[in-house]
Amino acid sequence: MTDRTDIDAEAMRQRLEERRDELKALAETNQEARDTVDLDPVREGRLARMDSLQKQAMSQAADRRRKQELQRVEAALQRIEEGDYGFCATCDEPIGKRRLEVDPAAPLCIQCAEKAGS
């Protein structure tokens, strides 16, 4: 693979590192919302319990999405280190510059992403 001279890998690295730090900070601040809900059925009504459980489930779903994005970001940082950044993980063709500007963690070119349903 040749270098992607049209991509500023250092600027992308900085954006990815900032996003990684944001995701980690969000995970720490939302830990309490994901913890097991322990409600006293005598003091709490049924609707309050249902509301608490729903909030917990939503927080857990958001945490799963955050973890997936964090994995994508860390994989992109690894590709930068290895010199593979900017190339499709499937076909090895260059990923469009605009696509990377919108999503610096994109691992696939637009054609392969469409085929994969991403």
TrEMBL record:
Keyword Metal-binding in annotation: yes
Domain Zinc finger DksA/TraR C4-type, first and last residues per copy: 83-115
Pfam families to which the protein is assigned, alphabetical: zf-dskA_traR
Zinc finger (dksA C4-type): 88-112
InterPro entries: Znf_DskA_TraR (IPR000962)
Classification via PANTHER family: GENERAL STRESS PROTEIN 16O (PTHR33823:SF4), RNA POLYMERASE-BINDING TRANSCRIPTION FACTOR DKSA-RELATED (PTHR33823)
UniProt protein name: Transcriptional regulator, TraR/DksA family
Species of origin: Limimonas halophila
